[in-house]
Amino acid sequence: MTGSRGRTDGDHGGDRTTLRVPGTPCWVSAMVHDLTATREFYGALFGWEFRPGPQQLGPYVRALLGGREVAGIGQLPQDRHLPVAWTPYFASDDVDRTAEAVRLCGGTVGVGPLDAAEAGRMAIASDPAGAVFGIWQASAHLGTALSGAPGAPVWNELLTYDAAGVAAFYETAFGHTPKAVPDAGTDRVTLHIDGRPVAGLRGLGDALPRDRGPHWVTYFGTADVDAAVERVAGLGGRVLEPARESERGRMAVVADPEGARFALVRGATG
């Protein structure tokens, strides 16, 4: 449980300059093995520029588009041979209280809660099925300052075994209202805050890749999905799902050179 949701903050997209409503995805970050090479990849793909961020967990930079922060990238310690992934952070009024709610609901808190200098307070946790996410209590750093634009986060979707089952965890821990997506033959749930969709859950059952397990996928906007897919391949990334039309618009699923999966999308994402 994350406390009051009385704030409004431009969660519908565009510029964001105030605190997020608790439970809303507010930031996305990746921990990688080669920070320099990863910066070069995303700089070439999205036009990101970078500046230093809090160093509590090692070297860390924030990515900017037009001077506005859109994502973070940190470097893993050399002895940590962990899979690389993009991790969404959910806003909280009180990280410590939310972390305790995560534990009580069957999740696990792997890092924190801890202070990230003057930026805010954070924790990294996983839901009962093992999908990793972050919790962010903002102070100086309010989160993603631009959304919905090319090169910025647009949507987050959890790929898991049983969407309906894990939805109860997010409902209790973050105050989300889960709503089943009326699409025959699929296990899909949308998480809502104050009546707005903020994230999606997709249950794949045995079709979930066993080498990944349950995991969150961040969608980044692009003006031209097909051209972006070509850039990914040319920059050393991989195309996991070729460009196709979907209910969210034209999209593709790709991976950066270290294997972090993400989606490219053009069009609506609700």
TrEMBL record:
Domain spans labelled VOC: 24-138, 152-267
CDD domains: SgaA_N_like
Coiled coil: none
InterPro entries noted in UniProt: Anthracycline_SecMetBiosynth (IPR052164), Glyas_Bleomycin-R_OHBP_Dase (IPR029068), Glyoxalase_6 (IPR041581), VOC_core (IPR037523)
SUPFAM superfamilies associated with the record: Glyoxalase/Bleomycin resistance protein/Dihydroxybiphenyl dioxygenase
Protein name: VOC domain-containing protein
Organism from which the protein derives: Streptomyces griseoviridis
Organism taxonomic ancestry: Bacteria, Bacillati, Actinomycetota, Actinomycetes, Kitasatosporales
